[in-house]
Design a protein that fits this description.
By secondary structure, this protein is an all-alpha fold. It is built from 17 helices and no strands. It has three domains: 102 residues, Tetratricopeptide repeat domain (Serine Threonine Protein Phosphatase 5, Tetratricopeptide repeat, Alpha Horseshoe); 102 residues, Serine Threonine Protein Phosphatase 5, Tetratricopeptide repeat (Alpha Horseshoe); 70 residues, Tetratricopeptide repeat domain (Serine Threonine Protein Phosphatase 5, Tetratricopeptide repeat, Alpha Horseshoe).
Length: 303
């Protein structure tokens, strides 16, 4: 008896999903299958992967030769966090079967690489991602996936080359710049990393990225610019205790002890910690206020 993933040879359907093509037609002209397919896509967007997979499985059983539909079904299994449902096993079955159905379909290899990465099977992930890039219908997202694999393998230069290629294709994805900036920092290429962080901020501002900008500036011995960077962040969010602490550390490096103490004091007001009291104590010590330094160290011990 065939399993739900076995292909019946009597069904032959070529090309992309016929039902997906109906998406360009008016709603009242869509087939029942087209409506079901659209519903599955909506459920995926809403995060209801189990419901989406149920619909996609029914459609796949009607069109068992369709690699596109099979890959989409596999994606729902891959991204479902319910391990009891055996999603990872089902995902692998879907992707491998899609590859058999269409050996030139890059997206199937790409998601197979994604699955392999999730299983820490890095050699397989490299093989599948490379295949995804070299078939007749390549999937350029495989550069991102292969870069992730190289990073897992601590091969930063290879990962950087893939990310450079992906970005050079005009793929404006914040995640690509984020991954590349991280690798650039690992390689001590801080000026390039800083440039990528700034691109990220233009695409979508994020407080955490500001700290990374400031870190790069500090590594480049541009402490005044790093302070200004954190000051801009505090204008956006005056309750960011971590920004006050980071700016305080930079103020100490600049010899601006009064400003550093003011920053540490504000951070303590927002979220007191032993580390903050110790940092302020060191600043007091440098100012010659041993009495205040002793008081803060006692408070740090209390915490």
């Amino acid at each position: 008896m065939p399993t739900e993933f076995e292909v019946s040879p009597k069904y032959i359907i070529a090309g992309l999903l016929a039902l997906a093509l109906t998406a360009v037609a008016p709603a009242d002209c869509k087939s029942i299958e087209g409506i079901q397919y659209d519903r599955a896509q909506a459920l995926i967007r809403e995060g209801h992967l189990d419901q989406a997979s149920t619909i996609l499985l029914k459609l796949y059983r009607l069109h068992p030769q369709n690699a596109v539909l099979l890959v989409e079904l596999g994606q729902t299994y891959l991204n479902d966090t319910n391990e009891m449902a055996g999603g990872q096993i089902k995902a692998e079955q879907c992707f491998r079967k899609a590859i058999k159905l269409d050996s030139e379909f890059g997206k199937a290899y790409y998601h197979m690489a994604e699955w392999a990465n999730a299983q820490s099977k890095y050699d397989l992930a490299i093989q599948m991602a490379t295949k995804a890039l070299t078939v007749k219908k390549p999937d350029m997202q495989a550069y991102m996936e292969r870069a992730a694999t190289y990073s897992h393998m601590h091969k930063d230069k290879e990962a950087l080359a893939d990310l450079d290629k992906f970005i050079s294709l005009g793929k404006v994805e914040r995640k690509a710049y984020e991954r590349r900036a991280c690798i650039l920092e690992n390689l001590n290429l801080n000026a390039r990393a800083l440039a990528d962080y700034r691109v990220m901020q233009k695409l979508h501002f994020d407080d955490g990225t500001t700290f990374k900008e400031a870190r790069c500036l500090e590594k480049l011995n541009k402490n005044s610019e790093a302070i200004a960077c954190l000051t801009d962040l505090l204008k956006r969010n005056a309750e960011d205790d971590a920004a006050y602490e980071a700016r305080g550390n930079l103020q100490v490096k600049q010899g601006r002890l009064k400003e550093a103490i003011a920053d540490y004091s504000k951070a303590i007001e927002l979220l007191p910690s032993a580390t903050l009291y110790k940092q302020r104590a060191d600043a007091y010590e440098k100012m010659g206020r041993k009495d205040l330094a002793t008081r803060d160290r006692k408070e740090a011990e209390r915490l």
